[in-house]
Amino acid sequence: MAVTEQEFARAEAASAAVRQHGYATAARYDRKADRLVVSLHTGIELTVPVHLLEGLAGADAAALSEIEITPSGLGLHWPALDADIYVPGLLSGEFGSRSWMAAELGAQGGRTRSAAKANAARNNGRKGGRPAKRQAIQS
């Protein structure tokens, strides 16, 4: 697939627009705090617990310490883990793909204990609990 000069120029302009919001100039793994530390071109350092990042949770320190920054500064790559993080996503609070984040947030919500959740469970129990799953009828 050939890329035209116009398409290339549009892609460069789009990348430049995204870079204005922040791009990585350095990245490192802080072993003591078990956190990813990303230095941005603005002088800001972003620190994120590794267990919150898709593809990095549970990895060993040696693999986490080997980080490559893409030439644009918009991506971080861990070769030993074959994991990638999009820097603008980190800045907006996205720590993985939509499906991964939904599963993580759902699991966290399921572990949450509160008076409201306990009352909702009691009320649901009074109504007979969860309905049984229906089995598909095969013919």
UniProtKB/TrEMBL annotation:
Residues 110-123 have a biased composition (Low complexity). It comes from the Bacteria. Residues 108-139 are annotated as: Disordered. Coiled coil: none annotated. Pfam families: DUF2442. Gene3D superfamilies: Uncharacterised protein PF10387, DUF2442. Residues 124-133 have a biased composition (Basic residues). This is DUF2442 domain-containing protein.
